[in-house]
């Protein structure tokens, strides 16, 4: 049995100023939106956030960004967030941009206890500045170090009270690997089931990686809506 919270404020109570967070999602798909709202209301600051991108101006991580709660962002692109771009250009926000595949592998490696790995991505670009390179079979590779976090905030479609998680289609994105790489993983679950109700053959994140659970409904906003005239 894991810690099952009755409010999102309770779920984030241990997250303090200066913490390093991994936040699942890709754009607005699969983000732990209620946990992020709770962090906005809590007002924690000087956060280092590891996430693919920073949401949009008015939702997701963009809300923390607007509140100046994020000190450093580690991600793969600026995305649709104009405030993110503004803070980067004015030097208000420290940013570490990483090729998307390298970011995913850095997180996966962190969760697997692998401290570093070599990749061809980024060789010969500013990404490689100050980093070790080696030649393997005549090709140059760049050494990238793994990533871990104090807390991983993930969003799942289904979960049980033991902490087993199932993600829904592309909302799985970075969530499953981030769940393994946080010292404490907090899972926002759309539907929470009793132990034994989920088919063990279809579990994406085993319970051993999850410490805290919270069930809640989501708005599931659309990042960019395109419709026929």
Secondary-structure topology with pairs:
Elements: E1 3-4, H1 8-11, E2 20-23, H2 33-42, E3 47-50, H3 61-66, E4 70-75, H4 82-90, E5 94-97, H5 100-112, E6 116-119, E7 133-136, E8 139-145, E9 149-160, E10 165-166, H6 175-181, E11 182-193, E12 212-215
Parallel strand pairs: 1-12, 2-3, 2-9, 3-4, 4-5, 9-11, 11-12
Antiparallel strand pairs: 6-8, 7-8, 9-10
Helix pairs in contact: 5-6
CATH architecture: 3-Layer(aba) Sandwich
Q: What order do the SSEs take from the amino end to the carboxyl end, as H and E?
A: EHEHEHEHEHEEEEEHEE
Question: Helical region count?
Answer: 6
CATH superfamily: Glutaconate Coenzyme A-transferase
Distance between the ends: 51 Å
Q: Can you tell me the CATH topology? A: Glutaconate Coenzyme A-transferase
CATH class: Alpha Beta
Work out the number of β strands: 12
Quick check: average pLDDT?
95
